[in-house]
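Let us practice reading a record.
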Amino acid sequence: MQESTQHLLIIDDDEMFCHVLHRAMSRRGYEVLVARNAGEALTLARRHLPEIATLDLKLENESGLKLLPELLELVPACRVVVLTGYSSIATAVEAIKLGAVNYLCKPADADEILAALQKQQGDPDTEVADKPPSINRITWEHIQKVLQEHDGNISATARALGMHRRTLQRKLQKRPVRR
């Protein structure tokens, strides 16, 4: 338990995830605030100046990456961990460049999230995978990179990839391919 109560801002549109994480973090002594979209997140951040936050990469109609700089402009000392069920190298790199202290793939439990928030620096002893990612995983990551380059615009991304917009939408609705 902390010596003084820290504010944790959870920014996620998944109601069940928010409920579970809220309960887990409250039990650990955090004052928990929940926002379901960018507008709510910025209002709560302005009012409560949270010390730590979790930010879903893919909010319903918004990108967490677009919200991240705005959040950090309001509360520069806030330590933010980006969470996502749609991880890719491109979005991980971009999240860190934009100021996130860490990036986790869902599902992540409260202990993993706290460890990511408290980690002060990288770990050079992290194991490097023995085998390269599959061609399907490389394709997924390339799509994510191009999508990021086009600010989440599906039509522009489809044009850049030379595929039909609906085909791209179907690919994006699927869960990411495992390594």
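A brief commentary: The chain has a mean pLDDT of 87.
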